[in-house]
Write a structure and sequence with these properties.
77 residues, mainly alpha, 4 helices
């Protein structure tokens, strides 16, 4: 599970480098972005979506990922 989380985190960081403004959005749109990244990473690496669900079940993982997204600093969320 650790390698799936690391792969997912690297994908988020890459997407933020490509388009940093995309992550400054509403909670609903951010959820869609995360879903898209999960789908893309899952397909490219043959990871079942349930693995991502397991990652988000853990509060520490969720907080770490939300920190990467600057979730807590986004106005309007």
């Amino acid at each position: 599970m650790h390698s799936v989380k690391n792969t997912f985190i690297k994908a988020i960081e890459f997407e933020k480098l490509k388009n940093p403004h995309a992550f400054r959005t509403t909670k609903d749109k951010l959820s869609g972005i995360i879903n898209t990244i999960c789908t893309k990473v899952g397909e490219e690496n043959r990871i079942p979506f349930s693995a991502f669900e397991e990652i988000f079940k853990n509060q520490e993982n969720s907080l770490q990922i939300m920190g990467l997204l600057n979730f807590w600093r986004n106005p309007g969320l």
